[in-house]
Structures are given as C-alpha cells and as structure tokens.
Design goal:
The complex is a heterodimer of chains A (about 170) and B (about 70). By secondary structure, chain A is an all-beta fold. Chain A is built from no helices and 12 strands. Chain B has a two-stranded antiparallel sheet. The chains are: A mainly beta (about 170), B alpha+beta (about 70).
Chain lengths: ~170, ~70
C-alpha cells in the first residue's frame, strides 16, 4: 500500500504574492512524487508552467482541456496545464486545485508527469485539463519549480510536495 | 504593496526561504505581463474580426451557421 510523506510545504504569506514555488534538494528515498497545489493568479491567466531540475529542453506536453463551454487539445514543448491556476477574473477568493504525479523520479530513463487540474468559478467559464508530459532526460529529479505564466500566485496559494513509498 | 517573492523549499533541510524580488525583477515581470496583455488583445481582435467576416459571408450566401456546418460535415 502506498505511503505518502509530506516533504515540502510552500504557502504565499504576503500580499505581494509569489512568482514561483521552488522545491529543491528533493531526497531520493521515495518511489514517486506528488505535488498538490491550490493557487490563484494576480492576473487573468489559467496556466502555470513546471520545470524539472530547471531544464527547458527535451520536453513534450499533451493536454486535453475543457473551458465550461467547449473542449480542445494542445501539444507543446513546455510543461503546463490549463486550470492549474485560477484566473483573477474568477469568483473572488476561489482557487484552482491541481495534482501533479511523477512516477519513478529517480530513475535513469525519461521522466513522465501527469497533471490533473481544475479551476473554481461561480460562472460559466472554468478550465479543467488532464495532461501527459515527458522530460526526456536520465537525471534524477531533485528540483520542481512551478511558475504562473504571467503575474504571481496570490496570497494563501499553497503547494505541497509528497514522497510516495511502495507505489 | 511589498514586492512579490520567490518561495524556495529545501526538501532535505526543511528550510523555507521567501526571497523578495528586486525592483528590476518586478519591472521585468510587469513588462512580461504587458506583452501578454497585448498579445491577448490582438488575439481577441482577430477572433472578433473573424466572427464578423463569418457573419457577413453567411449573410451573402443567405444561409445560417447551422446550414453552413451541414454543408461542411
């Protein structure tokens, strides 16, 4: 049975917001990693990007998403999701909920990552998505950075990193 | 309002750092936001123009959007 151990907590305490959550020196004592975030942006943006070990090369991203009134898909070379941060235009004080799952993060083969994201809004528009990403690199993952595509994460946004054993 | 921060969590030591951005970094952030807003405005303008062009074409053809979709199906 998998065991989840919380190994990192980040919370935006100040009213100025934060431009990124950066988990560093991730220990190699687990099987998988999970990041759970609750975030809202200072600007009208619905996506935040993820970097593994700070790398910007050898990445692919395939996303299926809904907007509340339509569905579509996208591919790209950065790791991101629609709905992994609540846009500032959404209902006040609501936050997007997102889970990032990274299996076999310390292996010597390419690293996969899945994202399950949804915005919250008392209205007709709310993005949600599921994403399959790949970082084609043999290095163990020791750092995860999440950054809103524009603006900042507002006060009370949070990110928790868990190490998963026996997954 | 204070400048935004970068939050760094050292998962081995448990140390959490909230590093305040410099004024230059904040200016760059504002510039990037401005560029993004300009790009979005341009996308919105193109989408609005496309909708107008589509409506004008349907009117010239004398068919509805549903009928046009039927033709293209």
């Amino acid at each position: 049975m998998p065991t989840y151990t919380q190994i990192g907590t980040a919370q935006v305490a100040g009213v100025g917001g934060a431009v990124s959550f950066d988990f560093t020196s991730i220990p190699n004592t687990y099987t998988d990693l999970v990041v759970v975030t609750s975030t809202r942006a200072s600007l009208d943006v619905v996506s935040a990007s993820v970097k593994l070990n700070g790398a910007t090369a050898n990445r692919t991203n395939r996303m299926l998403y809904g907007t509340g009134s339509g569905v579509a898909s996208e591919t790209g070379t950065t790791i991101y999701a629609y709905g992994n941060v609540n846009a500032s235009a959404r209902t006040a004080n609501t936050f997007a909920s997102t889970t990032y799952y990274i299996p076999n993060y310390k292996g010597s083969t390419a690293k996969s990552l899945s994202i399950d994201a949804v915005e919250e809004n008392n209205g007709t528009t709310a993005f949600s998505s599921i994403v399959a990403s790949l970082w084609n690199d043999t290095a163990a993952i020791t750092q995860i950075t999440i950054t809103p595509d524009i603006g900042t994460f507002v006060q009370y946004s949070t990110a928790y990193l868990y190490g998963v054993s026996n997954a | 309002m204070p400048n935004p921060t970068r939050i760094e969590v050292n998962c081995t030591t448990g140390e959490v750092l909230e590093i305040e951005l410099t004024d230059a970094e904040v200016a760059e952030l504002a510039y990037q936001a401005e560029l993004a807003a300009d790009a979005k405005a341009e996308e919105d303008r193109i989408a609005a123009q496309r909708a107008l062009d589509k409506a004008a074409l349907l009117e010239r053809l004398g068919i509805t959007a549903d009928e046009a979709a039927l033709l293209l199906a």
